[in-house]
Amino acid sequence: MPSAYAFLSLEMDTPTLQSASRLVYKTGIAVIGAGQAGLSAAYHLKKQGLEIGRGFVVLDQSSHPGGAWQYRWPSLTLRTVNRIHDLPGLPFSDTVAGNQPEVQANLAVPHYFEVYEKTFGLTVYRPVKVKVVCERDSRFRVETDRGFFSSQGIINATGTWETPYVPVYPGAGLFEGVQLHTRDYQTADAFVGKHVVIVGGGISAIQLLDEISRVTTTTWVTRKEPIFRSGPFGEKAGRDAVAIVEARVRKGLPPGSVVSVTGLPWSPAIDAMRKRGVLDRQPMFSEITAHGVRWPDGREVMADVILWCTGFRSSLDHLMPLMLKEEHGGIVMGGRLATMVAKNPRIHLVGYGPSASTIGANRAGRAAATELMDYLGLTHAR
Ligand SMILES: Cc1cc2nc3c(=O)[nH]c(=O)nc-3n(C[C@H](O)[C@H](O)[C@H](O)COP(=O)(O)OP(=O)(O)OC[C@H]3O[C@@H](n4cnc5c(N)ncnc54)[C@H](O)[C@@H]3O)c2cc1C
Protein backbone atom coordinates (compact mmCIF):
# COMPACT_ATOMS: atom_id res chain seq x y z
CA MET A 1 0.00 0.00 0.00
CA PRO A 2 1.46 3.41 -0.87
CA SER A 3 2.11 5.17 2.38
CA ALA A 4 4.99 7.07 3.87
CA TYR A 5 7.42 5.11 1.73
CA ALA A 6 5.55 5.89 -1.49
CA PHE A 7 5.38 9.51 -0.50
CA LEU A 8 9.12 9.49 0.04
CA SER A 9 9.72 7.99 -3.36
CA LEU A 10 7.53 10.65 -4.88
CA GLU A 11 9.84 13.18 -3.28
CA MET A 12 12.77 11.44 -4.89
CA ASP A 13 11.21 10.83 -8.29
CA THR A 14 9.17 13.89 -9.06
CA PRO A 15 10.99 16.82 -10.65
CA THR A 16 11.15 19.47 -8.00
CA LEU A 17 11.49 23.19 -7.93
CA GLN A 18 12.88 25.09 -5.02
CA SER A 19 10.74 27.60 -3.21
CA ALA A 20 12.21 30.00 -0.75
CA SER A 21 12.06 27.59 2.16
CA ARG A 22 10.50 24.27 1.18
CA LEU A 23 10.57 21.80 -1.69
CA VAL A 24 7.58 21.90 -4.02
CA TYR A 25 6.58 18.78 -5.98
CA LYS A 26 5.57 19.67 -9.48
CA THR A 27 2.79 17.75 -11.21
CA GLY A 28 0.20 18.20 -13.97
CA ILE A 29 -3.04 17.56 -12.10
CA ALA A 30 -3.61 17.21 -8.36
CA VAL A 31 -6.57 14.96 -7.56
CA ILE A 32 -7.66 15.69 -4.00
CA GLY A 33 -9.55 12.79 -2.42
CA ALA A 34 -9.60 9.08 -3.25
CA GLY A 35 -13.24 8.10 -2.80
CA GLN A 36 -15.37 6.96 -5.72
CA ALA A 37 -15.04 10.31 -7.49
CA GLY A 38 -11.27 10.68 -7.09
CA LEU A 39 -10.57 7.08 -8.08
CA SER A 40 -12.73 7.36 -11.18
CA ALA A 41 -10.88 10.54 -12.18
CA ALA A 42 -7.50 8.89 -11.51
CA TYR A 43 -8.44 5.85 -13.60
CA HIS A 44 -9.29 8.04 -16.58
CA LEU A 45 -6.25 10.29 -16.22
CA LYS A 46 -4.04 7.21 -16.27
CA LYS A 47 -5.97 5.55 -19.08
CA GLN A 48 -5.61 8.68 -21.16
CA GLY A 49 -1.85 8.58 -20.82
CA LEU A 50 -0.92 10.65 -17.77
CA GLU A 51 1.76 9.15 -15.61
CA ILE A 52 1.55 9.11 -11.81
CA GLY A 53 3.87 11.67 -10.24
CA ARG A 54 4.86 13.88 -13.15
CA GLY A 55 1.41 13.76 -14.79
CA PHE A 56 -0.89 13.59 -11.78
CA VAL A 57 -0.98 12.78 -8.10
CA VAL A 58 -3.85 11.54 -5.93
CA LEU A 59 -3.77 12.79 -2.34
CA ASP A 60 -6.01 11.50 0.45
CA GLN A 61 -6.11 12.37 4.12
CA SER A 62 -7.33 8.94 5.29
CA SER A 63 -4.79 6.28 6.21
CA HIS A 64 -6.62 3.55 4.30
CA PRO A 65 -8.55 3.12 1.05
CA GLY A 66 -12.34 3.43 1.18
CA GLY A 67 -13.27 7.11 0.97
CA ALA A 68 -15.98 8.03 3.44
CA TRP A 69 -17.42 4.51 3.29
CA GLN A 70 -14.85 3.27 5.81
CA TYR A 71 -16.35 5.56 8.49
CA ARG A 72 -20.03 4.61 8.11
CA TRP A 73 -21.91 2.74 10.82
CA PRO A 74 -21.61 -1.07 10.92
CA SER A 75 -25.33 -1.79 10.42
CA LEU A 76 -25.21 -0.11 6.99
CA THR A 77 -24.97 -3.23 4.85
CA LEU A 78 -24.95 -3.77 1.12
CA ARG A 79 -28.65 -4.52 1.47
CA THR A 80 -29.46 -1.23 3.20
CA VAL A 81 -27.38 1.12 1.00
CA ASN A 82 -29.13 2.38 -2.12
CA ARG A 83 -26.55 0.87 -4.43
CA ILE A 84 -22.81 0.98 -4.87
CA HIS A 85 -22.11 1.63 -8.50
CA ASP A 86 -19.13 -0.05 -10.16
CA LEU A 87 -15.95 1.95 -10.65
CA PRO A 88 -14.76 1.92 -14.27
CA GLY A 89 -13.09 -1.31 -15.36
CA LEU A 90 -13.77 -3.53 -12.31
CA PRO A 91 -17.26 -4.67 -11.27
CA PHE A 92 -17.94 -4.47 -7.54
CA SER A 93 -19.48 -7.94 -7.75
CA ASP A 94 -16.07 -9.34 -8.79
CA THR A 95 -14.66 -8.57 -5.34
CA VAL A 96 -15.04 -10.94 -2.42
CA ALA A 97 -17.92 -9.17 -0.71
CA GLY A 98 -19.57 -7.75 -3.80
CA ASN A 99 -22.51 -10.15 -3.90
CA GLN A 100 -23.27 -10.57 -0.21
CA PRO A 101 -26.12 -8.34 0.92
CA GLU A 102 -25.46 -8.73 4.66
CA VAL A 103 -21.84 -7.59 4.48
CA GLN A 104 -21.08 -4.25 6.11
CA ALA A 105 -20.65 -1.45 3.58
CA ASN A 106 -17.83 -0.02 5.71
CA LEU A 107 -15.84 -3.21 5.05
CA ALA A 108 -16.95 -4.19 1.55
CA VAL A 109 -16.45 -0.84 -0.16
CA PRO A 110 -12.98 -0.12 1.31
CA HIS A 111 -11.95 -3.62 0.27
CA TYR A 112 -13.24 -2.93 -3.25
CA PHE A 113 -11.35 0.37 -3.43
CA GLU A 114 -8.16 -1.28 -2.20
CA VAL A 115 -8.38 -4.00 -4.84
CA TYR A 116 -9.21 -1.34 -7.43
CA GLU A 117 -6.18 0.80 -6.59
CA LYS A 118 -3.92 -2.24 -6.82
CA THR A 119 -5.47 -3.61 -10.01
CA PHE A 120 -4.94 -0.37 -11.93
CA GLY A 121 -1.76 0.74 -10.18
CA LEU A 122 -3.41 3.90 -8.89
CA THR A 123 -0.93 5.05 -6.26
CA VAL A 124 -2.67 7.18 -3.67
CA TYR A 125 -0.47 9.27 -1.40
CA ARG A 126 -1.93 8.90 2.09
CA PRO A 127 -2.36 10.11 4.68
CA VAL A 128 -1.89 13.51 3.08
CA LYS A 129 -4.34 16.21 4.12
CA VAL A 130 -4.69 19.17 1.77
CA LYS A 131 -4.88 22.20 3.98
CA VAL A 132 -5.18 24.97 1.41
CA VAL A 133 -5.01 25.57 -2.33
CA CYS A 134 -4.15 28.94 -3.82
CA GLU A 135 -2.99 30.30 -7.17
CA ARG A 136 0.58 31.28 -7.67
CA ASP A 137 2.29 32.21 -10.97
CA SER A 138 -0.57 30.73 -13.00
CA ARG A 139 -0.23 27.37 -11.24
CA PHE A 140 -1.93 25.97 -8.13
CA ARG A 141 0.00 25.71 -4.93
CA VAL A 142 -1.39 22.78 -2.94
CA GLU A 143 -0.36 23.00 0.67
CA THR A 144 -0.60 19.71 2.59
CA ASP A 145 0.41 18.47 6.02
CA ARG A 146 3.21 16.57 4.27
CA GLY A 147 4.62 19.24 1.94
CA PHE A 148 3.74 21.37 -1.05
CA PHE A 149 2.62 20.50 -4.58
CA SER A 150 2.45 22.73 -7.61
CA SER A 151 -0.06 21.72 -10.29
CA GLN A 152 -1.55 23.08 -13.49
CA GLY A 153 -5.01 21.76 -12.69
CA ILE A 154 -7.10 20.49 -9.78
CA ILE A 155 -9.69 17.75 -9.62
CA ASN A 156 -11.32 18.11 -6.22
CA ALA A 157 -13.02 14.98 -4.89
CA THR A 158 -13.21 15.57 -1.17
CA GLY A 159 -16.85 14.52 -0.69
CA THR A 160 -18.99 15.71 2.20
CA TRP A 161 -18.19 13.48 5.19
CA GLU A 162 -15.86 16.03 6.78
CA THR A 163 -18.58 18.68 6.81
CA PRO A 164 -21.61 17.56 8.83
CA TYR A 165 -24.40 20.11 8.86
CA VAL A 166 -26.30 20.99 12.04
CA PRO A 167 -28.85 23.82 11.85
CA VAL A 168 -28.76 26.47 14.54
CA TYR A 169 -31.65 26.54 17.03
CA PRO A 170 -32.03 28.81 20.03
CA GLY A 171 -30.89 27.23 23.28
CA ALA A 172 -28.56 24.66 21.70
CA GLY A 173 -25.85 25.65 24.16
CA LEU A 174 -28.14 25.05 27.16
CA PHE A 175 -28.88 21.39 26.44
CA GLU A 176 -27.52 19.15 29.18
CA GLY A 177 -27.88 15.95 27.17
CA VAL A 178 -25.78 14.84 24.23
CA GLN A 179 -26.03 16.22 20.70
CA LEU A 180 -24.80 13.92 17.95
CA HIS A 181 -24.76 13.91 14.16
CA THR A 182 -25.30 10.98 11.77
CA ARG A 183 -21.53 11.00 11.39
CA ASP A 184 -21.16 9.96 15.06
CA TYR A 185 -23.60 7.03 14.90
CA GLN A 186 -22.21 3.54 15.42
CA THR A 187 -24.86 1.37 17.08
CA ALA A 188 -28.35 1.75 18.51
CA ASP A 189 -27.26 -0.05 21.70
CA ALA A 190 -25.53 3.15 22.80
CA PHE A 191 -29.00 4.69 23.32
CA VAL A 192 -30.69 2.04 25.46
CA GLY A 193 -32.59 3.70 28.32
CA LYS A 194 -32.38 7.18 26.76
CA HIS A 195 -35.03 9.21 24.97
CA VAL A 196 -33.70 10.21 21.56
CA VAL A 197 -34.99 13.08 19.41
CA ILE A 198 -34.08 12.30 15.81
CA VAL A 199 -34.06 15.29 13.49
CA GLY A 200 -34.19 14.94 9.72
CA GLY A 201 -36.27 13.61 6.85
CA GLY A 202 -33.64 11.87 4.72
CA ILE A 203 -32.79 8.25 4.14
CA SER A 204 -30.19 8.17 6.92
CA ALA A 205 -32.66 9.66 9.42
CA ILE A 206 -35.19 6.95 8.60
CA GLN A 207 -32.60 4.17 8.92
CA LEU A 208 -31.34 5.39 12.28
CA LEU A 209 -34.89 5.98 13.53
CA ASP A 210 -35.71 2.39 12.57
CA GLU A 211 -32.73 1.00 14.49
CA ILE A 212 -32.91 3.23 17.56
CA SER A 213 -36.68 2.90 17.97
CA ARG A 214 -36.23 -0.86 18.37
CA VAL A 215 -34.21 -0.38 21.57
CA THR A 216 -35.59 2.80 23.12
CA THR A 217 -38.14 5.62 22.86
CA THR A 218 -37.82 8.20 20.10
CA THR A 219 -39.34 11.43 18.82
CA TRP A 220 -39.00 12.04 15.09
CA VAL A 221 -38.86 15.66 13.94
CA THR A 222 -38.62 17.02 10.40
CA ARG A 223 -38.70 20.51 8.94
CA LYS A 224 -40.99 19.56 6.05
CA GLU A 225 -43.65 16.89 5.87
CA PRO A 226 -41.78 13.85 4.49
CA ILE A 227 -42.95 12.66 1.09
CA PHE A 228 -42.86 8.91 0.68
CA ARG A 229 -42.60 7.72 -2.89
CA SER A 230 -44.25 4.42 -3.72
CA GLY A 231 -42.95 2.25 -6.52
CA PRO A 232 -39.39 1.70 -7.64
CA PHE A 233 -37.07 4.61 -8.26
CA GLY A 234 -36.35 3.98 -11.94
CA GLU A 235 -33.59 5.30 -14.15
CA LYS A 236 -35.75 8.08 -15.51
CA ALA A 237 -36.61 9.34 -12.03
CA GLY A 238 -32.90 9.21 -11.19
CA ARG A 239 -31.98 11.23 -14.27
CA ASP A 240 -34.72 13.77 -13.51
CA ALA A 241 -33.44 14.23 -9.95
CA VAL A 242 -29.87 14.73 -11.13
CA ALA A 243 -31.07 17.18 -13.80
CA ILE A 244 -32.71 19.36 -11.14
CA VAL A 245 -29.54 19.49 -9.03
CA GLU A 246 -27.42 20.09 -12.15
CA ALA A 247 -29.61 23.02 -13.18
CA ARG A 248 -29.10 24.54 -9.71
CA VAL A 249 -25.31 24.34 -9.77
CA ARG A 250 -25.12 25.65 -13.34
CA LYS A 251 -26.86 28.77 -11.96
CA GLY A 252 -24.42 28.97 -9.05
CA LEU A 253 -26.95 27.90 -6.41
CA PRO A 254 -25.99 25.54 -3.57
CA PRO A 255 -26.71 21.97 -4.77
CA GLY A 256 -29.47 21.18 -2.23
CA SER A 257 -30.44 17.75 -1.01
CA VAL A 258 -31.27 14.98 -3.46
CA VAL A 259 -34.05 13.63 -1.19
CA SER A 260 -35.82 16.98 -1.49
CA VAL A 261 -36.03 16.11 -5.18
CA THR A 262 -36.63 12.37 -5.09
CA GLY A 263 -38.73 11.82 -1.97
CA LEU A 264 -38.23 8.85 0.33
CA PRO A 265 -38.66 5.41 -1.23
CA TRP A 266 -41.45 3.43 0.46
CA SER A 267 -40.14 0.03 1.52
CA PRO A 268 -41.21 -2.96 3.62
CA ALA A 269 -38.90 -1.65 6.40
CA ILE A 270 -40.72 1.68 6.40
CA ASP A 271 -44.07 -0.10 6.37
CA ALA A 272 -42.96 -2.07 9.45
CA MET A 273 -41.96 1.20 11.14
CA ARG A 274 -45.40 2.63 10.42
CA LYS A 275 -47.01 -0.45 11.98
CA ARG A 276 -44.78 -0.10 15.05
CA GLY A 277 -45.98 3.52 15.33
CA VAL A 278 -42.55 5.12 15.08
CA LEU A 279 -43.31 7.18 11.94
CA ASP A 280 -45.22 9.68 14.04
CA ARG A 281 -43.50 12.70 12.56
CA GLN A 282 -43.50 15.95 14.53
CA PRO A 283 -42.89 19.39 13.01
CA MET A 284 -39.64 21.14 13.81
CA PHE A 285 -39.29 22.41 17.37
CA SER A 286 -38.51 26.07 17.86
CA GLU A 287 -36.17 25.89 20.80
CA ILE A 288 -33.76 23.61 22.66
CA THR A 289 -33.98 23.68 26.44
CA ALA A 290 -31.70 22.33 29.17
CA HIS A 291 -33.62 19.05 29.20
CA GLY A 292 -35.19 18.66 25.78
CA VAL A 293 -36.88 20.47 22.93
CA ARG A 294 -39.85 22.84 22.89
CA TRP A 295 -42.40 23.75 20.19
CA PRO A 296 -43.92 27.22 19.66
CA ASP A 297 -47.15 26.16 21.48
CA GLY A 298 -45.10 25.50 24.66
CA ARG A 299 -45.15 21.70 24.39
CA GLU A 300 -41.86 20.22 25.54
CA VAL A 301 -40.32 16.75 25.13
CA MET A 302 -37.60 15.69 27.53
CA ALA A 303 -34.62 14.15 25.79
CA ASP A 304 -31.26 12.65 26.64
CA VAL A 305 -29.97 12.79 23.09
CA ILE A 306 -30.63 14.96 20.05
CA LEU A 307 -29.44 13.13 16.95
CA TRP A 308 -29.08 15.51 14.01
CA CYS A 309 -29.54 13.56 10.77
CA THR A 310 -29.45 16.81 8.90
CA GLY A 311 -26.98 15.99 6.20
CA PHE A 312 -23.63 17.20 5.03
CA ARG A 313 -22.21 20.01 2.95
CA SER A 314 -19.42 19.77 0.38
CA SER A 315 -15.99 19.80 2.01
CA LEU A 316 -14.42 22.69 0.13
CA ASP A 317 -12.84 24.85 2.84
CA HIS A 318 -9.33 24.18 1.54
CA LEU A 319 -10.34 25.90 -1.74
CA MET A 320 -11.41 29.09 0.05
CA PRO A 321 -8.49 31.28 -1.21
CA LEU A 322 -9.61 30.57 -4.79
CA MET A 323 -12.84 32.48 -4.07
CA LEU A 324 -15.06 30.17 -6.10
CA LYS A 325 -18.31 30.85 -4.23
CA GLU A 326 -20.96 33.29 -5.44
CA GLU A 327 -23.10 35.42 -3.18
CA HIS A 328 -25.79 32.67 -2.82
CA GLY A 329 -23.11 30.36 -1.42
CA GLY A 330 -22.93 28.16 -4.51
CA ILE A 331 -20.37 27.85 -7.29
CA VAL A 332 -21.27 28.40 -10.97
CA MET A 333 -20.48 25.11 -12.67
CA GLY A 334 -20.05 24.40 -16.38
CA GLY A 335 -18.68 21.69 -18.67
CA ARG A 336 -20.40 18.61 -20.04
CA LEU A 337 -21.51 17.21 -16.66
CA ALA A 338 -21.23 20.42 -14.65
CA THR A 339 -17.92 19.43 -13.05
CA MET A 340 -15.95 22.46 -14.28
CA VAL A 341 -15.79 25.62 -12.20
CA ALA A 342 -17.03 28.23 -14.71
CA LYS A 343 -14.81 31.04 -13.46
CA ASN A 344 -11.70 28.83 -13.43
CA PRO A 345 -11.80 25.93 -15.93
CA ARG A 346 -8.57 24.53 -14.49
CA ILE A 347 -10.57 23.36 -11.46
CA HIS A 348 -13.10 20.51 -11.55
CA LEU A 349 -15.30 19.42 -8.66
CA VAL A 350 -16.36 15.78 -8.76
CA GLY A 351 -18.73 14.15 -6.30
CA TYR A 352 -20.25 17.63 -5.97
CA GLY A 353 -23.93 18.48 -6.61
CA PRO A 354 -25.31 16.31 -9.42
CA SER A 355 -22.40 13.85 -9.08
CA ALA A 356 -22.82 13.27 -5.31
CA SER A 357 -23.65 9.58 -5.67
CA THR A 358 -21.55 6.58 -6.61
CA ILE A 359 -22.92 6.54 -10.16
CA GLY A 360 -22.63 10.31 -10.54
CA ALA A 361 -19.09 10.32 -9.13
CA ASN A 362 -18.07 7.74 -11.71
CA ARG A 363 -19.31 9.71 -14.67
CA ALA A 364 -18.00 12.97 -13.27
CA GLY A 365 -14.51 11.48 -12.84
CA ARG A 366 -14.37 10.63 -16.50
CA ALA A 367 -15.77 13.95 -17.71
CA ALA A 368 -13.42 15.94 -15.47
CA ALA A 369 -10.32 13.96 -16.51
CA THR A 370 -11.07 14.35 -20.21
CA GLU A 371 -12.06 18.01 -20.12
CA LEU A 372 -9.22 19.08 -17.87
CA MET A 373 -6.56 17.23 -19.89
CA ASP A 374 -7.91 18.85 -23.05
CA TYR A 375 -7.99 22.29 -21.47
CA LEU A 376 -4.45 22.01 -20.15
CA GLY A 377 -3.11 20.55 -23.39
CA LEU A 378 -2.08 17.29 -21.70
CA THR A 379 -3.78 15.07 -24.25
CA HIS A 380 -0.67 14.35 -26.34
CA ALA A 381 -0.32 10.89 -24.82
CA ARG A 382 -3.82 9.73 -25.82
C1 LIG B 1 -24.67 7.90 4.91
C2 LIG B 1 -24.48 7.95 3.43
C3 LIG B 1 -24.96 6.89 2.66
C4 LIG B 1 -24.81 6.93 1.27
N1 LIG B 1 -25.31 5.91 0.54
C5 LIG B 1 -25.16 5.92 -0.80
C6 LIG B 1 -25.64 4.83 -1.61
O1 LIG B 1 -26.21 3.88 -1.10
N2 LIG B 1 -25.44 4.89 -2.96
C7 LIG B 1 -24.82 5.95 -3.55
O2 LIG B 1 -24.66 5.97 -4.78
N3 LIG B 1 -24.36 6.99 -2.81
C8 LIG B 1 -24.51 7.00 -1.47
N4 LIG B 1 -24.05 8.06 -0.73
C9 LIG B 1 -23.31 9.13 -1.41
C10 LIG B 1 -21.95 8.53 -1.79
O3 LIG B 1 -21.33 7.98 -0.64
C11 LIG B 1 -20.98 9.51 -2.40
O4 LIG B 1 -21.62 10.48 -3.16
C12 LIG B 1 -20.02 8.75 -3.30
O5 LIG B 1 -19.46 7.64 -2.61
C13 LIG B 1 -18.90 9.61 -3.86
O6 LIG B 1 -17.96 9.81 -2.90
P1 LIG B 1 -16.82 10.89 -3.05
O7 LIG B 1 -15.67 10.29 -3.77
O8 LIG B 1 -17.37 12.15 -3.61
O9 LIG B 1 -16.49 11.20 -1.53
P2 LIG B 1 -15.90 10.36 -0.33
O10 LIG B 1 -16.20 8.92 -0.39
O11 LIG B 1 -16.33 11.14 0.87
O12 LIG B 1 -14.33 10.52 -0.51
C14 LIG B 1 -13.69 11.75 -0.26
C15 LIG B 1 -12.26 11.46 0.05
O13 LIG B 1 -11.59 12.72 0.16
C16 LIG B 1 -10.69 12.67 1.25
N5 LIG B 1 -10.52 14.04 1.71
C17 LIG B 1 -11.44 14.87 2.21
N6 LIG B 1 -10.90 16.07 2.50
C18 LIG B 1 -9.59 15.98 2.17
C19 LIG B 1 -8.49 16.90 2.24
N7 LIG B 1 -8.64 18.14 2.69
N8 LIG B 1 -7.26 16.47 1.84
C20 LIG B 1 -7.09 15.20 1.37
N9 LIG B 1 -8.11 14.29 1.29
C21 LIG B 1 -9.34 14.70 1.67
C22 LIG B 1 -11.33 11.74 2.27
O14 LIG B 1 -10.35 11.13 3.09
C23 LIG B 1 -12.05 10.73 1.37
O15 LIG B 1 -11.27 9.58 1.16
C24 LIG B 1 -24.19 8.05 0.65
C25 LIG B 1 -23.72 9.10 1.44
C26 LIG B 1 -23.88 9.07 2.82
C27 LIG B 1 -23.37 10.24 3.65
Automatic annotation (TrEMBL):
Gene Ontology molecular functions: flavin adenine dinucleotide binding; monooxygenase activity
Q: Which InterPro entries match?
A: Auxin_biosynth/cation_transpt, FAD/NAD-bd_sf
Going by the UniProt record, its keywords in alphabetical order are: Oxidoreductase
Record's keyword annotation contains 4Fe-4S: no
The protein's name? Pyridine nucleotide-disulphide oxidoreductase
Q: Name the species this protein comes from.
A: Parapedobacter luteus
